[in-house]
Amino acid sequence: MKTAKLEDMFKGWFVGNFEPSAHKTDSCEVAVKSYKAGEKEASHFHKVATEITLVLSGRVLMCGKEWSAGDVIVLEPGEVTDFEALTDAVNVVVKTPGASNDKYVVDASC
Questions:
Q1: pLDDT at residue 107, rounded to an integer
Q2: pLDDT (tens digit per residue) in 31-54
Q3: Structural domain includes residue 10
Q4: For residues 49 and 41, what is the distance between their CA atoms, to the nearest angstrom?
Q5: Can you tell me the mean pLDDT for 47-76?
Q6: Is 3's pLDDT higher than 80?
Q7: Domain count, the chain
Q8: CA-angle at 88, arms to 46 and 76, nearest 5°
């Protein structure tokens, strides 16, 4: 058995090709991301990976639409998203495949 602490992982990513990682793999990436109200991420897309976000708690804004606890957002390769935490929020994010260096920041929002 192997154990780890989420707080020790790279920006919440605990599965994937990260150091440290609870499970190192290129097949997928999994994270639990905690945000404070007002935190943002720049508009970006992935050329290879599909990114799935589950809002566990709070309210967030992605692509100009508000999402809340229980919402699942699936972004296919090439789809642009931005992100803003409208309240304190926790998301689970899965990327498949786990494609290192596959995040492309863009100037425009959705």
A1: 82
A2: 999 999 999 999 999 999 999 999
A3: no
A4: 18
A5: 97
A6: yes
A7: 1
A8: 20
- Measured CA to CA, the distance from residue 95 to residue 58 in angstroms comes to 21
The verdict on residue 20 lying in a domain is: no
CA distance 23 to 30: 10
Q: Could you tell me the CATH number of the domain that includes residue 35?
A: 2.60.120.10
Residue 82 carries which side chain, given as an amino acid letter? D
Q: Is 39 among the domain residues?
A: yes
Is 1 contained in some domain? no
Strand extents, DSSP E, 10-79: 13-15, 29-35, 40-45, 50-57, 59-62, 65-68, 72-75
pTM for the model stands at 0.92
Domain that holds residue 47: 28-105
CB 53 within 8 A of CB 93: yes
